[in-house]
Amino acid sequence: MQLQEMTWPAIMSVSKNLPVVVPIAAVEQHGWHLPVATDSLLLAEVLRRAGETLGDRAIWTPLLWLGNSHHHMDFPGTISAAPRTYLDVLGDLLDGLVAHGFRRIVLLNGHGGNIVPGSQAVFEARQRHRREGLLLLSATYWQLGSRPNEIEPSLVQSEMGHACEWETSMILRIAPHLVGEIAKIEPVSQSPSFAPASRGWITRERSEVGHIGNPRAATAEKGEALLSIFARDVVAFLERVGAWDGRSWEG
C-alpha cells in the first residue's frame, strides 16, 4: 500500500502492525557515466519489485531522495543534507509515524552515506519512544543477507562499490539510455577497511573520477540478476518484520 495514495481515515483504520517502509536514498554524483539519481532510481526499482510480491502486507511512504552525501560535494550535481540535519529529518519522520500509532517502522536505505545516520536515527528515536512492542529498524537493501557474487558467478565484484559494476549493471537494466560510455573506464580499487579504526574520508581521496569499482564489467543481464536478488531479500526481510513477536528482534 502506498501511504501517499491513502486517505487519513484509511490510514487511521489500517493495522498498525503492518511494516511501514520509509525508503531513503540520495541525489549525488555517480562518476562520468551514471546519473546523479542512481541511488534513488535503484532503490525505487528494488522496492517496486518487492511491493509486487508483498501487496497489502506493507505500507510504503514516498521515497526520500535527499541523503547525507557531503563526502561527494567535490563533484557537481551532488545535493546533500549535512549529517546532523539529516539525522533530524529522519528522526522527525520516525516520530510522525510513531505518533500515528505504527509499531513496525523501517528506514530502508539505498545509499552508503545514509547507513551511519540511519542507524543513529533509529537509535535516538528508540530512546525517545520507550513503549513496549515498538520495532524501529534501519536496513540497506544490498546488506540483507545475500552474496550476489556467489549466486551470479559472472559478477566481478564481491560487494557494492560506487557507480561500480553492480550499480552500472542495474541502471543498464532499467534505464540504459542514462548510462554513458563504459568501455574505456578504468577500474578504481575498492579500498580495504582501515582496521581496527573507522576512518573518516571524502570521495575525492578514494577516486579522482567519482566511481569506485569496475563499471566496465557491467551488463544488463547482471543488473537483472542483482535486482531480482535484492528484491527477494527485501521481501524476506519485511516478512520477518511482519511476523515479529513484539519482543526480541534478535530472537
How would you summarize what this structure contains?
The protein has 251 residues and is of the alpha/beta class.
Structural features, described:
Strand 1, helix 2 (38-54) and strand 2 (59-60) form a beta-alpha-beta unit. The protein has helices at 8-13, 38-54, 83-99, 115-128, 148-151, 165-174, 203-206, 220-242; strands spanning 20-24, 59-60, 104-109, 135-140. It starts with 7 loop residues before the first helix and ends in a 9-residue tail after the last helix. Strands 2-1-3-4 form a four-stranded parallel β-sheet, sandwiched between helices. The protein contains eight helices and four strands. The chain is globular and about 55 Å long. It is 38% helix and 8% strand. The chain has 251 residues and is an alpha/beta fold. The model has no long low-confidence stretch (mean pLDDT 96). The protein has a single domain (3-242), classed as 3-Layer(aba) Sandwich (Rossmann fold), CATH 3.40.50.10310.
Question: Secondary-structure blueprint of this entry?
Answer:
Layout: H1 8-13, E1 20-24, H2 38-54, E2 59-60, H3 83-99, E3 104-109, H4 115-128, E4 135-140, H5 148-151, H6 165-174, H7 203-206, H8 220-242
Parallel strand pairs: 1-2, 1-3, 3-4
Helix pairs in contact: 2-6, 2-8, 3-4, 6-8
Arrangement of strands in the largest sheet = 2-1-3-4
Work out the number of β strands: 4
The CATH class designation is Alpha Beta
Q: Could you list the spans in which at least 5 consecutive residues all have pLDDT below 50?
A: none
Secondary-structure element order, N to C: HEHEHEHEHHHH
**Radius of gyration over all CA atoms, rounded:** 18 Å
Shape: globular
Determine the number of helices (DSSP H or I, runs of at least 4 residues). 8
Q: Biggest sheet, open or closed, and with what strands and sense?
A: 4 strands, parallel
CATH topology (level 3) name: Rossmann fold
